[in-house]
Design goal:
116 residues, mainly beta, 7-stranded mixed beta sheet, 11 strands, 53% strand
């Protein structure tokens, strides 16, 4: 059974930091590229960051470049999203996603709220 379980969300003040984690099971994690998406109320789901299967290639949305860092630990079947200098507009539900060819797996999401 494929599972992706996100954690680490919460309420943080503007300028603060959070680290999201996503633990995968039920598939060969090291063979899959991984992505973080987010969806704010009333908005479409947005791709935030992507990392290749071995972790050597990363890409970011312009809105988070320089503030967020995606990484992975294939020994722990875990992908991370380090979020620094958070802004109110980063408020959203964050989802991790594993993809490879036609396989496309999603977690349940974790809420991030940036507010004073």
């Amino acid at each position: 059974q494929v599972q992706l379980v996100e954690s680490g969300g919460g309420l943080v003040q503007p300028g603060g930091s959070l680290r999201l984690s996503c633990v995968a099971s039920g598939f060969t994690f090291s063979a899959y590229a991984m992505r973080w998406y987010r969806q704010a109320p009333g908005k479409e789901r947005e791709l935030v960051a992507v990392i290749s299967s071995a972790g050597g290639i990363t890409n970011y949305a312009d809105s988070v470049k320089g503030r967020f860092t995606i990484s992975r630990d294939n020994a722990k079947n875990t992908v991370y999203l380090q979020m620094n200098s958070l802004k109110p507009e980063d408020t959203a539900v964050y989802y991790c996603n594993g993809f490879r060819f036609r396989d496309d797996y999603w977690g349940q999401g974790t809420q991030v709220t940036v507010s004073s």
